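Record format v2
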Amino acid sequence: MTTAISIRGLTHRYPTSSGNVLDGVDLDMAPGERVALLGPNGSGKTTLALHLNGLIPTQAGTITVHDTPVAAPHLGEIRRRVGLVFQDPDDQLFMPTVRDDVAFGPANLGVPTSERDQRVRDALGAVDAVQLADRHPHHLSGGEKRRAAIATILSMRPDVIVLDEPTSGLDPVGRRELAELLVAIASTQLIVTHDLPFALATCPRSLIVDGGRIAADAPTAELLADRELLARHRLELPFGFELRHTGT
Amino acid sequence: MMIAMHAPDGFLEPGVAVATAAISLVVMAFAVRSASRELGDRQVPLAGVTAAFVFAAQMFNFPVASGTTGHLLGGALAAILLGPWVGSLVVGVVVLVQALVFADGGLTALGYNVLNMAIVPAFGGWAIFWLVRRLLPKNAGGVIGATAIASGMSVVLASIAFSIEWLFGATAPVPFDTVFGAMVGVHTLIGIGEAVVSSMVVATVLAARPDLVAGARDLDTAQLADRPRVGVRTFVMAGVLVAALFAMVVSQFAASGPDGLEKVAADQGFAAGAQDHGFADSVFADYATRGIGNEELSLAIAGITGVALALTVGAGLVIAARQLRRRPAV
Amino acid sequence: MGGGHGRHDAHRLHVGRDTAVHRLAPHVKLVALVTFVSAVAVTPRYALWAFAIDAILLAVVAVAARVPAAVVARRVLVVTPFLIVAVLLPFIGHGPRTELGPIEVSTDGLWAAWNIAAKALLGATASIVFTATTPIPEILTGMTRLRVPRPVVAIIAFMVRYLDLISEQLHRMRLAMTARCHDPRWLWQARPVAAAAGTLFVRTYERGERIHDAMIARGYTGHMPVDERAPDRPAAWLVALAPPAVAVTAAVVALVP
């Protein structure tokens, strides 16, 4: 069975900063796995996420997605296979209606109109947003925007979905609904977040990124139970929360 | 009194509407192509959101005096921030949408509205900007100062453009010299506000992301850091004084009562010409030439300012075209 | 003075109904609009009958489209500055005089006032009826169908999409300043307001860069996707072009001396 994502020695340095934002990252993900990427601000999580879709060209190291390298001339293929959900849904919902946005990806892939319409219906259905199809993105609530943004990726039928801080701006019910939604989607998922309860609810496995490296890689429940580990990387459960140990 | 802007249908004669539409169409077509060359596949999102910004910024009001407020025209500012091709395209799109979607400005008036609000300020402003930058030190302060002068004068240029269009296409019995005097006079004062606000905006952008100021692309980091403290109040006072003097001189022209102006003209040695026949069968609009205080003087003013306007905008276009060729395509 | 009309939400311009006018294809309506407005613009001012016909035609379309008169009346106020100019013309205009009650005004000035007011009102109203019956996405489709270059249409689409967001951001910045007792009255106090605009420009541009990333991430290569549309029905053209055709005829008849 091929790995879904395989990263070896990924290193990245921004031109304006000294020191590497990513410093030799190694990572493997199996198909269908959901993995949370935890870490403090500035740890390189988002930089890593943007590499997976080829938005940031690889400076050193390799990334392969289902055996396809993330490098020119495969970028078109990569962008079909890896869907990226951005932190601010307004950056991702740029067409006049939600329907146009969800159709944008398949249109770029050359999907003919009739099949395109079907994909739009399926994607909106998967995120329970069919009623939003003809709405203007500006008039949606935070949760609706988030779901619409995910639909814009689902219509491309990706193998891997990368989400960057998907809970920002959501109220507690919105967070729960998003968690339920993500668990129901079959693709491999990499979720960048610092919302630890959300990570626990959605991802059996978590990685801690700090200083450009993978500092920890373990089942989520184990990681969250290790208070000192969390503290060392500027992570902590929300104030007043405690991890309840339940049998697996 | 910004009636030079967002003119409704039929405000000027059809001949002028068609001629200016042709000019605007050609320049805008070049702008689209040049923007595409400059920005590559970033053209659509960047031009789109900056157009939204220009639209929003034109609606926002800044204080002028004791509670009265003014609005930005924004053409020169757009050119200095985005470059003249993208800048004129963006403002042109704003004018088009205002006319088509918001009924602000007539569809048949788009030719002169786009010319006056987008093309003239962007390219005229760009030419003046670079001229002034040559005279000022090569640093952030120089960019800010040049922005002030260029954007202030771009408003005056727009009013001159409108006045000349009026000369050819007037639809009301108000003679050219009255329109010229009133428009240019008032817009000189309006230009002060544009100058002050535009330069402040550029100063802010320079401090945060200097790479987003097209007019400062030639500066290196050391030069960018060099910003002398300009006393804003002093600048405004000086600007008001200069503009007020200019406006006073120009608006004398508007008092087209034969006495005042002919006397001035006679003193200066211009032959007094109160007859119509010189202009009767000319290409100029009847309404604009009838009742002019002094024909020779008016023709001279129209000629001089018209040529100056054309040269400035033309220079802006040439400079912009050369700069585009020099930069590698994206 | 200037651009301070409260035109914020581009989507409240559309009056959602289901009439024959609404159902017409957008590119057909666009051609009809431009034709009508052009006819109005060239109609000589003395041909009052032609303007009457134009007004009736417009009224018929507006009624057929069930656009409320209140909506039109409110939005047509955008031409008020020019109506004011028109009112002044009889007093500042040159040329032969007429008596208007106790005062003497310029005859040509009166005609010019009529000319400007009539054309401004008719043109604006036509535009308003068009926008009320054609939602923005359809206007864009119509423009594409009429061979407006696709980058231009796309830029307009993005502009309309983000206009509300950016206006709101600007508004919130101003609110935050007011909440800190900022009450500028004079031009040299404009710095904080101008700085807010400058900051907003940077944020807007950076958003544009992020949107570009999002587009690339979904396979964008520089060409907006095409949509195949339904073929034209000739009947639609006949219906839509009838009113402008009458207007054009009226203008032509009026122009022939």
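The domain at 14-326 of chain B is CATH 1.10.1760.20 (Arp2/3 complex 21 kDa subunit ARPC3).
The first strand of chain B starts at residue 61 and ends at 65.
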